Amino acid sequence: MYYFKCNRKKKTCLGYDVLCGAQKRISWIFDQFERLYVSFSGGKDSTVLFHLCAEEAHKRGRKFGLLFIDWECQYRLTIEHVSKMVKLYSDVIDLYWCCIPLRTVNAVSVFEPEWIAWEEGKEWIREKPECAIKEGSFFPFHQGVLTFEEFIVLFGKWYSRKQKTACLVGIRAAESLNRWISVASDRYKQTFQDRRWTTKVGEYVYNAYPIYDWKTEDIWTYCGKFNKIYNRLYDRFYQAGVPLSKMRICEPYGNEQRQALDLYHIIEPETWGRMVARVNGANFGAVYAKTRGIILGNYTITKPEQYSWEEFVKLLLNSMPFQTAEHYRNKLAVYLNWWRTNGGLLNGIPDEQSGDLGAKDIPSWRRICKCILKNDYWCKMLCFSPTKTLAYQKYCELIRRKRELWRLI
User: How far apart are CA 145 and CA 137, in angstroms?
Assistant: First the structure.
């Protein structure tokens, strides 16, 4: 496979293979940045990136940081693989194995729409490893229970020590349109020295994607040809009939990740038994996450004939726990008011319209209904992003007051 250069419209072949291209980029990163660390998940892509960075570090006699977010609800095979990689390259890494409370979306329950990994007072799925950072207080920036997105930004700022820093991330443009755009786009990001495979994410910190042009086949060719260790969980995925393109390792309860929940009880029944007891809705998600229709808002959705979509949305909200319903009402009030005041829909959004269930935000009550059925807690379908943890309560109080004036929902 040949290395290619991205622009917004096409790929340009530069005449050398992707391994050579990745090695050149990693060497350049070591030359340009005072500090660097690898964001490691235990998956196939970040494993290859880890191998390549360790090889370069050995050549230079230099160390780099390794950040691994341990989500507690992970396959035992993944934790074993991470431990092997850490041991193999212990001489060139500064390890940050984080077993600290972090909030993330739980898209399989309205009773617990977010869950907290390593939450105090809970019976954890397993014990924290000895080498792990076990308390959030280890980091001076840690306040309350942060989300993953908040933690990543604050960690990069803290790790940089106000020096030029690279965070190496194992994403590949072939995986999705969003990842292609993150590399190819030059409109919405700042880069380092015009390398499109870099993105500025902080005052001193840049994300770098050295293997962005690799395909799935390149990942496995590299591991096989050079006899590199990899996460044996992928062997189990293969035995379970999972296509190569669908093999993903990440926290399990998100809107996309929940579709692989049913594999846990097939591959690691003991881990699955603990997960069902640990996280609200886990078994429900395993049973229904792939089901089409109304249960979790997958694909096409339906409603009772006697209701309009607006009425059905209100029925769903009234059936939820109060706190979850209030969260959605706040988001929906902002959304409806924006379309009324900025979007030109003075009489409100329509009940449904063509294309309103697709990726583009075409406003309708049917789209709102799909957002709720999907347990899209932060309403990403409606173009919202997660509210920062420390500001969330103030945000809720502010919107609650505005709702009384708007009288929308």
Answer: 11
Residues near 28 by Cβ (< 8 Å), separated by ≥ 6?
Answer: none
Residues 40-51: tens digit of each pLDDT: 999 999 999 999
CA-CA distance, 303 to 308, in Å (whole number)?
Answer: 8
Residue 279 lies in a domain: no
Q: Could you tell me if residue 89 is inside a domain?
A: yes
Residue 291: pLDDT band with limits 50, 70, 90: confident
Which whole number is the average pLDDT over 322-333? 94
Do 373 and 301 touch, CB atoms closer than 8 A? Answer: yes
4, pLDDT greater than 50? no
Give how many domains the chain has, as a whole number.
2
Nearest CA among 59, 66, 47, 87 for reference residue 222:
47
Among 217, 242, 265, the domain boundary falls at 217
Taking the model in full, what pTM does it have?
Answer: 0.85
* Cβ neighbours for 184, distance < 8 A, ≥ 6 positions apart: 6, 7, 8, 173, 196
Whichever domain contains 181, its CATH number is 3.40.50.620
Mark whether 24 and 125 lie in a shared domain: yes
The C-alpha atoms of residue 147 and residue 159 are separated, in whole angstroms, by: 18
Examine residue 190 and state whether it is found in any structural domain, yes or no: yes
Q: Of 217, 238, 268, which residue constitutes the final position of a domain? A: 217
Domain interval for residue 371: 309-406
Q: Are strands 35-40 and 165-169 parallel, antiparallel or unpaired?
A: parallel
Q: Are 155 and 133 in contact (CB under 8 A)?
A: no
Using an 8 Å Cβ cutoff, are 103 and 145 in contact? yes
